[in-house]
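Design job #97: recover the sequence.
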């Protein structure tokens, strides 16, 4: 709701535009030549007998393989490891992030997992946290659609659930 998926797509579009040498939608943009790899709209396949989670794992394996081979990538990931339990997701996401840092990967990863925000402390030269914040004012949820430094502070899901009459006990 705050605009993170739209932002990721905008980054990807501008990266591609910049790589082919045409004007970008930005005041300025610095990039390096690399292949763009995304995991924004992974889907399952009944015909292919492939779950969403397995399709995403195959995509992540491909990314790690390309990085291991020395290929320069710009990676855009949205909510990695959806579809598994929260503890497994968190452990896997942290392990993936550590591998990406090891391979000096560049890119942008969006997540709702607050534990991943702590990786900036472990890798201050490699990871920076930014957020889109939902501000609660006058019992309403407001979005500025402005990128801010740090990890999200507000619990907008709890606020919306309570506002919609879903008990939060």
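Job complete. Output follows.
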């Amino acid at each position: 709701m705050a605009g993170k998926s739209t932002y990721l797509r905008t980054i990807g579009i501008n990266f591609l535009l910049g790589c082919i040498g045409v004007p970008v939608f930005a005041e300025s943009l610095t990039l390096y030549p690399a292949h763009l790899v995304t995991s924004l709209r992974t889907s399952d396949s009944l015909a292919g007998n492939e779950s969403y989670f397995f399709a995403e794992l195959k995509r992540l394996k491909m990314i790690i393989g390309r990085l291991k081979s020395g290929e320069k990538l710009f990676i855009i990931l949205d909510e990695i490891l959806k579809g598994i339990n929260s503890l497994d997701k968190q452990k896997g996401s942290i392990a993936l992030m550590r591998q990406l840092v090891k391979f000096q990967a560049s890119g942008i990863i969006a997540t709702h997992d607050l534990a991943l925000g702590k990786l900036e402390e472990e890798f201050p030269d490699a990871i920076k946290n930014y957020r889109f914040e939902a501000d609660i004012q006058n019992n309403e949820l407001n979005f500025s659609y402005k990128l801010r430094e740090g990890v999200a502070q507000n619990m907008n899901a709890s606020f919306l659930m309570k506002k919609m009459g879903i008990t939060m006990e």
